[in-house]
Amino acid sequence: MRPKRVVVGAGKAVAVALVLLWSLVPIAFIVVSSFKPSADIFAVPPRITFSPTMQHFADLWTQWRGFFTGLLNSAIVTAGATLVAVVASTMAGYAYSRFRGGAMAGTAVFLVAVRLLPPIVITLPLFPMVNSLRLNDTHLVLILLYSTFFVSLGTLLMRTFIDQIPRELDEAALVDGGSRLTILRRVIMPLSSQGMLAVAVFVIVFAWNEFLFAFIFTSTRAKTAPLFIAEMMGSLDAFDWGVLFAASTVQLLPIMLFVLLTQRHLVAGLTGGAIKG
Amino acid sequence: MAATTPRTLASTVASHRSRNGRFRIPVKALPFLAPVHALVLGVIVIPALYVVWLSLTTSTFGKAPSFVGLANYVHSLGDPYFWRAMRNTVVIVLIVVHVELIAGLAMALLFASGLPARRWLLAAVLAPYAVSEVSAAVIWRFLFDADVGPVTVALNALGLPSLEWSVVPAHGLLIIALLSMWLHLPFTFIILYAARLAIPTHLYEAAKMDATSSLQTFRYITLPLLMPAILVAMLFRYIFAFRLFSEVWLMTQGGPARATEVLAVYLYLDAFRFSAFGAAAATGWLMVIVSLILGVGYLWGLRRQMMGDAA
Questions:
Q1: A contacts of B190 (beta carbons < 8 Å)
Q2: Alpha-carbon distance A198 to A74, whole Å?
Q3: Contact residues, chain A, for B122 at CB < 8 Å
Q4: Which residues of chain A are within 8 Å of residue B194 when distances are taken between CB atoms?
Q5: Structural domain boundaries of chain A?
Q6: Which of A81, A163, B11, B54 has its CA 20 to 30 A from that of A245?
């Protein structure tokens, strides 16, 4: 028995190493490289010890000041989209949890069915519409797009969470003369904050990273951080890997830390609470 | 993007049918439903219907559209670039979805077999989920850079040929597929892992008492019980992989010479570079139709095959 166990253990260790090599090493590579002096970035084999420098971040600040406006735009759009998506999803989730009937089920199916449309198809008619409404290159258009593309999932998620709150609670409040809106605010929302957080995590990760819609609907005023990085990649003649790594690191680290901290909620949202911890 | 969707949806429909057959939305529910439905109607449904109209017209941005019937569809279907984009899309989807499922399944079984520091390993595996397509493209462009990329250098040092992804179209498609898998494997994995953890332990204990081999346990317990989750993950990944745009745009822009274009890139170029909104709209509807056929048809076949096995 014992030799077999050793073999299995070694096999597992190799498998875990491969998994880490695949998922973590590429990220670590650019984050670490953004602190390396330019000469060390291309060293073969990759240098693990080096004297860290903030030079690339300083260059980023002086050469690509716009990138930091882009970060601000990303933050504004992310905050707006999260607020809209969470509030709208919670309201609809409450309705789907407490009211029943064929029409309710039908509209729920409809919410999911519309998500089968590829987003790029929607950009075709939206582009002239957005232009004629003079919403082109505004934070608002991205906020509406990002939140809309998450309310289907958000609504179903919130319904699952609100289903776990006993109906007796809101019925008691109804008898006491509270309106449904008050019940939602005073009873449902505090008790379903876990679900709201799960929805928020999804929207935040999506909105912070999104490329396609931002690429099509923004040009200067509302241009988000990912677009600046794409632009840096595009200016091939002045290809400066160090600055590119610095920009990617600044864009990536906050959301990475956020996902790490809220991992439980993300996983709970994705799996309907099947995995704990 | 969530596994909960189909399941909760099914239970929504079921519970509603059993409770109440009437087909009417309660008036009191309306104010609560209004925001979500206003967003979905205004941003997705009405524009989507407008696409149908657009696809039947010639319309350049800023000009009044004129009706041309099915000419745009005929044009797209007769365009060799359309078919090349279609072929590239299908190839990438088939590779990405199947490799992801196999790798995700293997990882789910690895994690379920008991690992030390499971929480941290889980976080590490989920990390690419937080990385934007743009940052991921920076990473992959650097790793596989023709001159300085560490992977290129390592491959050359081992006497292996490196990926000339910016020159050779097949290599370009391969690196796009790799990048896409890297970004989406966490999703596929977590669905399968959750499903694996949901399999009752006593089934495995019973199998152990019957001295079943681990291969048999996998074949007769794990795989059949994971099938629903595998199908869910597969359907979601089919639908999402089919829309692939950013990975291609950020790596090759569809080049060299339009050889690595996928449908979404073909559509984008038609609309925003050649200002042919009508033709692009036709491509858009063809995309919707093909993605539905691909996803639904494949799942239908798999399901029948499974039922054949069980009988």
A1: 267, 270-271, 275
A2: 20
A3: 263, 267
A4: 267, 270-272, 274-275
A5: 65-271
A6: A81
Q: Which CATH superfamily is domain A65-271 in?
A: MetI-like (1.10.3720.10)
- Contacts B43 to A, Cβ<8 Å: 122, 126, 144-145, 148
- The alpha carbon of residue B277 and the mean position of all alpha carbons in its chain are separated, in whole angstroms, by 25
Of B235, B105, B302, B91, the closest CA to residue B177 belongs to: B91
Residues on chain A touching B249 (C-beta within 8 angstroms): 211, 215
Strands B57-58 and B66-67 come out as antiparallel
Kindly determine whether residue B190 and residue A157, on different chains, have CB atoms separated by under 8 Å.
no
Distances (CA, A) of B240 to A4, A147, B93: 42, 18, 9
Q: Are B246 and B140 in contact (CB under 8 A)?
A: no
Partners of residue B58 on adjacent β-strands? B66
- Domain range summary for chain B, segments of one domain joined by +: 39-310
Mean pLDDT (whole number) for B269-275: 88
Model confidence band, residue A116 (pLDDT cutoffs 50, 70, 90): confident
Name the residue facing B43 among A102, A107, A145 (closest C-beta): A145
Beta strands in chain B (DSSP E): 57-58, 66-67
Phi, psi of B173, rounded to the nearest 5 degrees: -65, -40
Tell me the average pLDDT across B110-129: 89
Q: Over pLDDT 90: what percentage of chain B?
A: 38
Strand partners of residue B57: B67
Hey, what are B282's tokens? Answer: 């036709």
What top-level class would CATH report for the domain B39-310?
mainly alpha
What six digits make up the tokens of B112? 């379920």
Cα separation of B132 and A64, whole Å? 19
What letter does residue B114 receive in the DSSP assignment?
A: -
- Supply the pTM of this predicted model: 0.88
Q: Tell the burial category of A208 from Cβ atoms under 10 Å away from its Cβ (0-12, 13-18, 19+).
A: buried
Of all residues in chain B, the one with the smallest CA distance to A202 is B1
Please state, in angstroms and rounded to a whole number, the distance separating the CA atoms of residues B222 and B217: 7
Average confidence (pLDDT) over B85-104: 95
Judged by a CB distance cut-off of 8 A, whether residue A152 touches chain B is yes
User: For an interface test with A, which of B15, B33, B86, B89 has the most A Cβ atoms less than 10 Å from its Cβ?
Assistant: B33
* Residue B61 · residue B275 · CB < 8 Å: yes
Query: CA separation (Å) from B237 to A34, B124, B244, B284, B304?
Result: 33, 21, 11, 19, 20
- Region of A178 on the Ramachandran plot (φ > 0 left; ψ -120 to 50 alpha; else beta): beta
Separation of alpha carbons A80 and A54, rounded Å:
32
Cis peptide before A45 (omega within 30 of 0): yes
Residue B67 forms beta bridges with which residues?
A: B57
Answer yes or no: do A119 and B17 touch at CB < 8 A. no
CA-derived radius of gyration, chain A: 24
Average pLDDT in chain B: 84
